[in-house]
Amino acid sequence: MLEGMLAGVRVVEFGYAWAGPLVGRMLGDLGADVIKLEQDNARGGHLPDDLALRAALDDWRRGEAVEPTLRASVFPEGEPQPDPWNRAGIFNKLNRNKRGLCADLKTLSGKRIWRRLVETSDVIVDNFSPRGSKSLGIDYETISQWNPEIISVSCTGYGHTGPFRQRVSYGPVLEAHAGGASVTGYADGGPMKMGHAFPDPIGGLHGTFAVLAALWEREDTGRGCFVDLSQLQTYAAVQGDLILETSLQGQAPARGNRSRSCAPQGVYRCRDESPDARESLDMWIAITIEDDDAWARFRQLVGDQRLNAPRFTDLTGRFEHHDELDSLINEWTRDRDRFELAGQLQKAEITALPVMTNGDLVESRQLRERGFIVEWDQPGVGVYEYGGFPIHFSDCGPAEMRPAPGLGGDNRRICEDLGFSAEEIDEFIEDGTLVNIPPVGASR
Amino acid sequence: MTDLAGMSGLRVLDLSDNVSGAYAARLLATVGAQVTLVEPTSGSSLRSRPPLLTSTEPARSAAFEYLSAWKRGVALDRSTQAGRAALGQLLDRADVVITTMSPSEALAFDRTARAGRPSLIHVSATSYGLTGPWAGWRSSDLTDWAAGGYLYITGDPLREPLQGAGPWASYVAGIAAAIGAMAALHARRATGRGQLVDVGAMEVMASAHQWSLVMWSHQGRIKHRANNRHAEAHHPVSLMQVADGWVCIAAPTQAQWVNLCVALDLPDMADDLRYATAGLRFDAAEEIDGRFAPFLMARRRSEVVEHLQGFHVPASAVLSMDEVLEDEQLQARAFWAWPESLGDGARMPGLPFHLPSAPDGFSAAPRLGADTSAALEEAGMTSGEIEALVASGAIAADGAVHA
Question: Are A275 and B222 within 8 A, CB to CB?
Answer without folding.
Answer: yes
